[in-house]
Amino acid sequence: MMLAVNLTPILQGLYMSLLKLNQYTLNQFLDAPFIGLDNYRRILFEGHSPIRAGLGFALRNTLLYTLVVSIAAIVIGLAVAVLLNRDFPAKGVARTLLLLPWIVPSYVVGSLWGFMWQRDVGIVNVVLVDYLHLLDEKPFWLLGANSFWAIVIPTVWRAWPVMMLLFLAALQAVPEDQYEAATLDGVSKWGQFWHITLPILKPVIVIQFMFQFIDNVYSYNIVSMMFGGGYPGEWADLLMPLLTRQSFSYWMFGQGAAVSFIMMTLMLIFVAVWMRSFKRSLANDE
């Protein structure tokens, strides 16, 4: 029963990707003209097709965005977790306050940072140019290559606190006697982190990287809210906004379903390769 519930939407999406399903045939839904793999051909091989050019930019941006956000969130989350694992006054209050970005809904994060990146009145340019005088003039953050960082920074800002929380929980399981023995042997704090903490946390880091990677590939809310649901430009467009725009703005539901199926296939390949590498790594560590 559960298998049928899980597979039915996937199979329906696959079938929709084989149909000429647009504003003219939407009233027929699953009885729309069957065109086989033509949607996939247009997306992958038809050079003058608008979605073909857009897909290249979105694929490049999604890959870079996913890698940068995933690695940055894990590195920052791990670094802060190690610092918070020490005893200091008001540690509980600090942990709670640092979790606040994660509590903010992603839709709200996109809207807030959209205002913050405004050229003339945004708080980012006001601080950088008017207060700190780090730049000579106020840059456009929502145009050109800067727009890539305009979507990366808010995503990292929201993602790293939950990484911190998970690593903090994992650090509680590290045997204290290993640190005490290393201290007696004269091992520095950095050496203890490198030779004790990091190897023990390796499975957690690898699993979190996989979850972060998958989650960021399907990122949509922040980009959509920051750019008002329109085209964000060739440096900020991701696969999910492209898919949504293709389906619901251009009414090309068949091509949108084909893009979603290509994304799902790529993610299945990634997860399969990751699981094989992870199992091999665990076997080598034993």
TrEMBL record:
UniProt-listed InterPro entries: MetI-like (IPR000515), MetI-like_sf (IPR035906)
Superkingdom assignment: Bacteria
Subcellular location: Cell membrane
One GO cellular component, as annotated: plasma membrane
Mode of membrane association: Multi-pass membrane protein
Keyword rRNA processing listed: no
Regions that span the bilayer: 63-84, 96-116, 148-171, 248-274
Entry keyword set: Cell membrane, Membrane, Transmembrane, Transmembrane helix, Transport
A biological process term (GO) from this entry: transmembrane transport
Main location (coarse class): membrane
Family statement: Belongs to the binding-protein-dependent transport system permease family.
Name of the protein this chain belongs to: Sugar ABC transporter permease
UniProt source species: Undibacterium parvum
